[in-house]
Amino acid sequence: MNFKELLGNLPEVKQPEKKLSFEERLKWTGLALIIYFILSMVPLFGLSESYVAQFETLSILLAANFGSLITLGIGPIVTGSIILQLLVGAEIIKVDTNTKEGRSYYQGIQKLFSIFFIVFENLIYVLSGALPPIVNTPFYLGLLSVQLIVAGFVLMLLDEVVSKWGIGSGISLFIAGGVGRQIFVNAFSPLQSSTGYPVGAVWQVLIMIGQGFLESIWFPIITISSTVLVFVLSIYLQSVKVEIPLSMGRIRGLSMKWPLSFIYTSNIPVILVASLLVSLQIWGSMMFNMGFPIMGEFELVNGRQVPTSGLVKYLNPPTITDLFFGFNMDVLLTLLIYGGFMVIGSIVFSILWVSIGGQDASSLADQISSYGLSMPGFRSDKRVLESMLSRYIMPLAVMGGMTVGLLAVIADLFQALSRGTGILLTVMIIYQFYEQIKRQYMQDLPPWLAKFFKG
Fold first, then answer.
1. Would you tell me which of 191, 202, 269, 451 could form a disulfide with 346, CB atoms 3.0–4.6 Å apart?
2. How much is the pTM?
3. Which residue, among 81, 83, 89, 87, has the nearest Cα to 110 in the 3D structure?
């Protein structure tokens, strides 16, 4: 069996044999989301009762729930995608993604990488001691590993179900679902916290006003306001577009405009760089537990591992409290390293995704030409289109990636109802779902819903 035959025999979700209606796709999307929530709530059997969840603020970016069946969430899947993108970008692995066969080959390699990292990362996470078993024996270590690996495969296949049978991307759906759940809980949960007030910020504000503690309501108000601000800015950035004038060559006088979004590569670069950041934190913890603190050291604070030195310490964003009430050189260094990682990483992954994701000038020129469109005043020639598009696409990829990375950093400085980057991603994902439904499924929508999407 050669390598291509191996890729063809990997487990996969079958493509639907007929075109699915919007309602059918919505059902499959909802079912995948429900299964994801179930996986996130089922605790690992054989896990020690002394285990305390780690990286709670970071886990939301991986659609993970530490201590559950999906402890590492989409982390291994995204790690495989990042490694493959870097290898293809460096031309270590040569794949022509402009052809159908090349794209199929790329997807097969991507799945193989995902399977490898699902097995490898979950196995290492257990063996490093990050997930302590009830009894430290090979049986319980193996039991924890098998549960995590099987759940990781299920999550990978659920992503494929959403991509082929549902709407959008499964990875994006799971991130949005996890962040949405956290925002709802932190805004409206009536359960009491350690401060004596409810967990929900809305209830905190109402109770403090009722008790006359007006000077104490500023923190929950800032939390709610920063969440709303990130939503508004994200929606605005998604709506900014550059429109390229085109004409229909066969019909004189007929023209249209082809929109290029300012956030050209959408939420993909932010997902990749945020997931890479979380993966580095997890790997730093695993290496420290194994006695190799190469990426930094951790110490237990209230039963939790907190990074105290090295790269892992500076990959956590400072809070607005640190900036205004505890600012020092260490806070400045944290801001510069974390901010630089997010902004530069977003730019790099945005550039890579343009080439690998089939969004480069050549691919887009092929797509436009297939519709019989051309540049006004020029003869129908793909090279003319490609030359014109190349003036916009790469600058948009760089500026869009930089803007999204910078907005993610600013959002993370405020203690919003969820992590700022998570909120940014969720808004972009929801907007992307909205645009996809509007573009592809308008004819299947009921009249009242179609009216909403028409605005």
1. 269
2. 0.74
3. 81
Euclidean distance between CA atoms 162 and 172, whole angstroms = 10
Q: State phi, psi for 419 to the nearest 5 degrees.
A: -60, 140
Phi, psi (rounded to 5 degrees) for 74: -85, 5
Give the confidence band of 32 by pLDDT, cuts at 50, 70, 90. Answer: very high
Q: Could you read off the pLDDT of 130-140 as tens digits, one per residue? A: 788 888 899 99
Cα–Cα distance measured from residue 198 to residue 246, given in angstroms and rounded to the nearest whole number? 56
**Rounded Cα–Cα distance for residues 221 and 416 (Å):** 10
> What token pair was written down for 422?
């998570």
DSSP secondary-structure letter at 21?
A: P
Cα–Cα distance measured from residue 85 to residue 280, given in angstroms and rounded to the nearest whole number: 17
Identify the helix (H) or strand (E) that includes residue 247.
strand 241-248
Write the single-letter amino acid at 179: V
Residues 6+ apart with CB under 8 A from 223: 186, 201, 414, 415, 416, 417
- Tokens 């030409």 belong to which residue? 369
Give CA separation, 288 vs 48, 58, 90, 314, in Å: 20, 18, 30, 16
Q: What is the 3-state composition of the chain as percent helix, strand, coil, each rounded to the nearest 5?
A: 65, 5, 30
